[in-house]
Specification:
Layout lengths: L1 E2 L6 E4 L1 H10 L4 E7 L5 H13 L2 E5 L1 H8 L7 E5 L8 H6 L6 E6 L4 H14 L3 E5 L8 H7 L8 E4 L2 H10 L3 E5 L16 E6 L7 H6 L2 E3 L12 H17 L4
Parallel strand pairs: 3-4, 6-7, 6-10, 7-8, 9-10, 9-11
Antiparallel strand pairs: 1-8, 2-5, 3-5
Length: about 250
């Protein structure tokens, strides 16, 4: 298992993502580029935040910002950042936990917008890490960082070579592997869920792969009371992670 990181600086864009990084880990921000034509309140707030953090801010033509992504919607702000330091591997992260593990496993989520949204909800719910296979997953890039609104830099994201083997290793650590699957007989709110849990979700439509489903200790379904048959994977992730969070808050939970 390996941590997604690198020594080369990464780039994040958009006011929300850049501000989140400045507030959460200002020491990792190398510099901030702002469209020289922007002098509105948001641009001024960003400049003040960069100044407080001691981060160099450069005002540049919009075309220079466009060059980072070939014209992506950067809102007039781009930052270069050093990859966040943290656990070098999933094993190291799990060894260092002082509480029961809460993990999100994504099998086949290849859309960067979906990954960014999943990282955001995982961070909000207090998940310790998000796990995905190397062969069928989106990597963290500028689009993911923007959608995640800072969570991509705060939530550990591990891409593993063999997802089935990784799930087996989690079970050896007494972490239950629970899959969310529309065909499951048991509903989420009636299921007996352990504290240490790895929630497994497949891509919308395709669902989990067979080997992934077979590794699950149990499967549960999110009740669907309306006409739609499925939820976006990030919405489903929020439902199951917050159900775990709710149960942990119960007396004796």
């Amino acid at each position: 298992m390996s941590r997604v990181s690198g020594r080369e600086p990464r780039v994040v864009f958009g006011f929300h993502a850049v501000l989140a990084r400045l507030r959460a880990d200002p020491g990792s921000v190398i510099d901030v580029f702002v469209d020289e034509a922007r002098n509105d309140a948001r641009a001024r707030d960003l400049a003040s935040a960069a100044e407080r953090a001691g981060v160099r801010l450069l005002r540049v033509p919009a075309k220079r910002l466009d060059g980072f992504y070939g014209g992506a919607r950067h809102q007039g702000v781009v930052a270069r950042i050093e990859p966040r330091s943290g656990a070098a591997s999933l094993e190291e992260l799990l060894e260092g936990l002082a509480e029961a593990a809460l993990l999100l496993v994504l099998d086949g989520v290849t859309d960067p917008h979906n990954l960014g949204a999943c990282l955001r909800v995982a961070n909000a719910a207090g998940a310790h890490a998000v796990i995905a296979p190397k062969d069928r997953a989106a990597g963290v890039n500028a689009v993911v960082s923007k959608v995640a609104s800072g969570a991509a830099e705060l939530t550990p994201y591990f891409m593993v070579t063999n997802l089935a083997r990784t799930l087996d290793e989690l079970k050896e650590r007494n972490i239950w592997v629970v899959g969310a699957d529309a065909s499951a007989k048991e509903e989420l709110y009636q299921a007996d869920l352990p504290r240490a849990i790895a929630w497994v979700l497949g891509a919308e439509g395709a669902g989990m792969r067979r080997l992934t489903r077979e590794r699950c200790d149990t499967l549960v379904r999110i009740p669907m009371r309306g006409a739609v048959e499925s939820l976006n994977v990030s919405v489903a992730a929020g439902v199951v992670l917050y159900e775990s969070l709710r149960r942990r808050a119960l007396p004796g939970g």
